[in-house]
Design goal:
binds fe (ii) ion; 135 residues; single chain; Four Helix Bundle (Hemerythrin (Met), subunit A); mainly alpha
Length: 135
C-alpha cells in the first residue's frame, strides 16, 4: 500500500499543478517503497535527489504564476516554499553524509510536509487562479 493515496480533496483546481503534486506524491511513495524493501543508500539517495529537484521545479512553477498574475499572498507563500525546500535539502544532506537514514518518521514528515502545504497554502490560490482563467 502506498504511503499517500491521491485524493480529489488534494486538488487545487488547476490541472497542471495537480499533476505536479501527483508527481511529488509518486516520488514520496517511491522513497517509501524503497525504504520498505531495504534498498541501499544509492537508490534511496537517488530518489531523494529527484524529490529535491522536482520540488524546486514545482515551487518555481507556482511562483512564476504568482508573479505573472500578481497573487496577493505571494510573499507569504514564497517564504513557505523556501522553508520547505530548506527542510528537505537539509534532510537530503544529512542522508548523503550518513548522519541519518530514511525511516518511517522521515516518511511521515515528508508526507505531512507535502500534504499540509497543498491543503493549506496551495488551496488558497484556487479561486484566484480560476478567476484569472487558469484551470
Ligand atoms: Fe504546490
Ligand atoms: Fe505552494
Amino acid at each position: 500500500m502506498p504511503l499517500i493515496n491521491w485524493s480529489e480533496n488534494y486538488s487545487v483546481s488547476v490541472k497542471e499543478i495537480d499533476s505536479q503534486h501527483k508527481k511529488l506524491v509518486e516520488l514520496i511513495n517511491n522513497l517509501h517503497e524503497g525504504m520498505k524493501h531495504g534498498k541501499g543508500k544509492e537508490i534511496l539517495g537517488g530518489v531523494l535527489n529527484e524529490l529535491v529537484n522536482y520540488t524546486a521545479y514545482h515551487f518555481s512553477f507556482e511562483e512564476k504564476l504568482f508573479d505573472k498574475y500578481v497573487y496577493p499572498e505571494t510573499i507569504h507563500h514564497k517564504r513557505e516554499h523556501q522553508k520547505l525546500v530548506e527542510k528537505v535539502k537539509s534532510f537530503a544532506n544529512d542522508f548523503n553524509n550518513g548522519k541519518t537514514t530514511v525511516s518511517i518518521d522521515v516518511m511521515n514528515f515528508l508526507k505531512d510536509w507535502l500534504i499540509n502545504h497543498i491543503q493549506g497554502s496551495d488551496k488558497k490560490y484556487s479561486e484566484f487562479f480560476n478567476s484569472n482563467g487558469i484551470y
